[in-house]
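=== RUN LOG ===
request id: a7f3
mode: sequence -> structure
chains: 1
length: 159
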Amino acid sequence: MHFCEALQHSSWIIALDSSVTITTAFELCHYAGFFLLVGSIALIDLRVLGIAGRGQTPTAMAEQLFPWMWVGFVFALISGFFMFAGDAVDFYGASFFRLKILAFIVALVVGIAVQWQVPRWDRQGSISFGPKIVALISLLLWVATILLAVEVPAINGVG
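=== RESULT ===
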């Protein structure tokens, strides 16, 4: 809590947070980062499930999308930090924000695991039931993360 108070009241965060142009740019970067992050992981998950991208192997698709996932992650993380910093105390106390962060971390770990395992699963010829369940769980975790993110301002009044 002390870190949040110090962060929120630091002069450079106050300067950034008081500019409509800068806060709008952070929000746009945050949404764009999430679109890249979640979109690239979701496409791989859908390919593992056999729903999308049947024209190429899961490994080829993962190799193309993996760098975009990291670009999206960096955009979302950096912009999210600055968006958090402006109201750090309120965000820290918001239960749905903490749930969102937890869901985000779990979804990211599962999404990375799927992308790293795709070449191994692809070598087996056809993707078995187990990896498909993992890909489905990955998709559901991202949906949960997005839904929790939408609820943060609605329920906790921050953001």
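=== NOTES ===
The CA atoms of residues 12 and 18 lie 10 Å apart.
The chain has seven helices and no strands.
=== END ===
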